[in-house]
Every structure is written in structure tokens, then in C-alpha cells.
């Protein structure tokens, strides 16, 4: 990674994590005031237990995303790209945002019943895992009869694909499948 891109990544991560700190601090300060001062909701242990994952994930994001600086002020490591699509950091942000939403709803409604929405997290995990596991269970069944039907339909579909191509395109496709005709030394 070049020095310029390391600096860009480091400044982007630092600004995102700074925003995360400010928003988390504000929302949690309001929640603590509502829970301990106004005694809304009456049980504070629920807030403490169910906000803990958010605190842990924010610590993980900060330890992974903040740049490491040397004694001379140069960037040793720019940190991981916490905004990378499809990474686990994306799920960390989702859980943190959901916790903030539930904190605000707890403040507004004054009830711990809003924390039942935290069941969305395991529900989403089951949904994602089921997309991976269910195809293994769908393969069983039919056996030989289904296999012969699939082969006959596959043969007819390749004929359709080739008939839809012009003669020139069919020749080019055949040459590509055949491989290189001339070998160079």
C-alpha cells in the first residue's frame, strides 16, 4: 500500500471512529440519565447487559481501525479498512446502530420491551446461514430419474444456445474451446 493511500485510509478511519464515539457518547449519556435519574425503565440491568455488545464491538472497531503511529509521527500501520463491503466490520456497525436505535426507543417509551427487537440479530444470522445450508438438503431426493431429465434438458439448452449464435460466433467459440492453434517458442 502506498503512503498516500495509507494516509487516506487512516484519516477516513479516524474520522469515522470519532463520529462513532460522539454519537455513542451522546446516546448512552441520555440513556444513563433516563435509566438512573428518571428511573425509566425501572430495571437498569437490562440496559447494561444489552448495551455491552455495542461497547465491545466499538472497542473492536477502534482497535482494528485506528492507525498506529511511530515515535516520529509517521504511520506504521493505517489499520484495517473498517468500511470494506462484505466484511465482519459491516456487521459490527449494524449491531452498534441497532443498539443505538433500541437505546433511543427505550428512552422514548420508557420500557425494556423494546429490547426484544434485539432478536433480529440471531434471526438475521439464521437467515444468512440458511441460504448456505438449505441447498445441501435440497439435493437429496429423485435420484436417477431426476438426473436423466436434467441431462436431456441440458443437452437441448446447449443446442438452443448454439443455434442462437451466428456461424461466425459459433466458429469463434469452437476455436476458443479448442485452445491456441500455434505454439510460440
From TrEMBL:
The keyword Endoplasmic reticulum applies. Residues 141-185 are annotated as: Disordered. It is a multi-pass membrane protein. InterPro entries: SND2/TMEM208. Keywords: Endoplasmic reticulum, Membrane, Transmembrane, Transmembrane helix. Residues 174-185 have a biased composition (Basic and acidic residues). The chain crosses the membrane at residues 20-38, 88-109, 115-137. Its main location: endoplasmic reticulum. It comes from the Eukaryota. It is found in: Endoplasmic reticulum membrane. GO terms for biological process: vacuolar protein processing. Residues 146-167 have a biased composition (Polar residues). GO terms for cellular component: endoplasmic reticulum membrane; vacuole. Belongs to the TMEM208 family. This is DUF788-domain-containing protein. It comes from Candida theae.
